[in-house]
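The following block was generated as part of the benchmark described in Methods. Ligand: succinic acid.
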Amino acid sequence: MIGVVLKRVVCSPQVNRVLSCTSHRDFHDKGYIMGEWVGAKSGKTFDVTNPATDQVLAKVPDMDEHDAEASIQAAQTAFLSWRHTTGKERSKLMRKWYDVIIKRKDEMAKLITLENGKPLAESLGEIIYSSDYVEFYSEEARRIHGEILSSPAKSKEMMFVREPIGVVAMLVPWNFPTAMIARKVSAALAAGCTCTIKPSEDTPLSTILLAATAEEAGIPLGVINVITSSRQHAAGVGAKFCTSHEVRGISFTGSTGVGNLLYKQCASTTKRLALELGGNAPFIVFDSADLDNAVVGAMASKFRNGGQTCVATNRILIQDKVYDVFISKLKDAISKLVVGDGLDPKTNIGPLINMAQFHKVAAMVDDAKEKGAKVLVGGKHHSLGRTYYEPTLLVDIKQDMLCYQQEIFGPVAMTMKFKTEEEAIRIANNTRSGLASYFYSNDFSQIRRVSHALEYGMVGINEGIISAAEAPFGGVKESGLGREGSKHGLDEYCNIKYFCIGGLN
Ligand code: SIN
């Protein structure tokens, strides 16, 4: 018996009003284990709130390691049959899943805005981005091939096949509560793996809804499972996933600190581990750059989701000859940003996800101000209160400032001046992180030199938005392990099994 089975659940009045969900379908606010919508075994729940209004959207199960174990067993049971489906069968089911997501995209987008706070247009973009992964991997499912090898001995035939690794546990963040799951789950399912997902305590409803779309598409019971937990139980659930012998892989997107802890915990069971951790992206504007394009790129990479992305521009480095003009254009663009509730179509910047994030951003700006940075725009709590922070432009940032050393994860653009290409590369690489980086230049030789010199997993060249299902997303150094998206994203979920047939004439 897996927890308490609750098939039909009525959503909270606010969610109900905004999604009109009960008028056309069930809204689930439970965990999802073996195809059942379930409460926590303990019966406990926690509140999910809208950061724009502080209103409680729903109460979801506060699941612990016992529920996590049930979800692992469900995924393990489902794996026994899912692993034997053909790539074509999986492909067809996943294509149906894609169709359901597209059909329900508006409702899904609204739910992201309600629990995450990002503007509705961005939420819709996130749903399309999510569906791209499902569509892409529905196509890749049919192309997971082995190889016949060139044998060194006439009496031996050698080959390998790719097999699914098994049950994968996924720990996903609040900043892209649907896309980060879609990108993991669709690659895993295409490879023949099954999964159990723990969403962030801030944004579990989007994950639950994504699972409901998979159910509607006919993804078999137990192939996808969802465990919702409060902050209090998150560590226990994570530890259960890492130490379980049945879980053969962990895929995590989040902070470097938690990623390192999971890395340690996984050692006892020698698990496959994919980590997409924090960044500290440089954005370099060289003298030859098209400055208007560079401002568009800086705004997109900095202020997407209010600056709360791992690939967000963190340190903007501007070459001395174009410094004044670029700063003036950037200042104009930032001054025009409209802060508010993401449901308002005029809003460009929503609230930060929670008070902890707000305090972190405010403390980093205060630290920079104390150490000599100047504020050209914003720099304080927004008059809307709560977790709203003013879009901010800081100039003259220095190496000893926290915002130089760590990603700020908020709507704060930070700039510094440089003289030479060597200096820019030295500053850009002067971090333990290595996720995304960006630069703008119209000098082709420089483009070639700098793109190779940057110690990052991803480089945007004259482009501020680089993510796509077709592209390998991931970092080097302390930004993580493995890649998501592209055909290489499948490697995290496949084992290579080698056959050697001997005794041949
Ligand atoms: C992230 O912030 O972790 C992901 C951003 C993206 O996929 O573009």
